[in-house]
Amino acid sequence: MDSYFRGKTKNIKGTDLFSFKVRSTIRIKKVEGRDYMKIVSWNVAGFRACLKKGFIDFFKEIDADIFCLQEVKATKEQYDFHPEGYFEYLNPAERKGYSGTLIYSKDKPLTITYGIGIPKFDIEGRSITLEFPEFYVVNLYVPNVKRTLERMNERMEWETHIKNYLQSLDKEKPVIICGDFNVAHTEMDIKNAKQNIGNAGFTYEERARFTKLLASGFIDTYRYYHPDDDSHYTWWSYMKDVRIRNIGWRIDYFLISERSIQNVIDTMIYSDIYGSDHCPIGIEINLGKGEN
């Protein structure tokens, strides 16, 4: 493990191998067999680079049923990690070395959808949807408005399309959405809120659209089970000592259809896992509990 996590671990509730992971305050029940599933999401900020920084060790140890990656920045010929026992689905951007999403899944999905049906965004490889009997899994890499906010109009257009897309899926069966949303939703999700109001990722426009997405039928799973947590983040600047001092943003999320929130057994932020400027996040799901 030394190759992929650094710094001091915290003895947080839970005594499994990854004792540093942030766990929810309740555990519904112990679930055994196929009704239980673990899903992990990680913006790797370049998969080829992350593979050299301990990604494989973490992947093997965490043993997720579904592992979603964002900002892969590679085609299939450019990396050689194809783990046995997993189906692999890559959606690269047309532009080389840019964007891209990837999913590894132990189970073969019923259907695979690349993109959301909007060509200007689909050529950037920003989404993959897997359909399973019980639910959909959607892996997203949301467009960044850039420091100058020059891409704000496109981002607002994306927000409209993605909300419509997710709602259309939700009409059929519950949806689990994960990825880098490139927005800190509330002041609890960012270390220095006052200083960052209006900056990319913390503009009123972006935050309002995230609120609107949640209001359309989805729940931020981590916030639901950690309503008062204002100190755990998923992204830190590469500037010196920023991550050590935990000056971060929570911009990576797992959302779930409202009617299925009780299916969520646990939520995790693997904040001591390095390899990217983001850390991995995860959820554990009881597929056999709750309403469909």
Structure characteristics:
6-stranded mixed β-sheet; 292 residues; globular
| Count of helical regions | 7
How much of the residues is beta strand, in percent? 15-25%
Assembly context of the chains:
single chain
Uncertain spans:
1-33
Strands ordered across the widest β-sheet: 3-4-2-1-14-13
Shape annotation: globular
Arithmetic mean of pLDDT: 89
Secondary structure class reads: alpha+beta
Q: Over all CA atoms, what is the radius of gyration?
A: 18 Å
Distance between the termini: 38 Å
Q: Encode the helix/strand succession as letters.
A: EHHEEEEHEEHEHHEHEEEEE
Number-wise, the strands total 14
Query: Biggest β-sheet: count, sense, barrel?
Result: 6 strands, mixed
- Work out the helicity level: 10-25%
Structure explained in plain terms:
- The chain has 292 residues and is α+β, with helices and mostly antiparallel strands.
- It has helices spanning 47-51, 55-62, 119-122, 152-170, 193-196, 204-215, 221-225; strands spanning 36-43, 66-70, 87-91, 101-105, 111-114, 127-131, 136-141, 175-180, 218-220, 235-236, 248-249, 252-257, 264-269, 281-286.
- The strands form 3 sheets. Strands 3-4-2-1-14-13 form a 6-stranded mixed beta sheet.
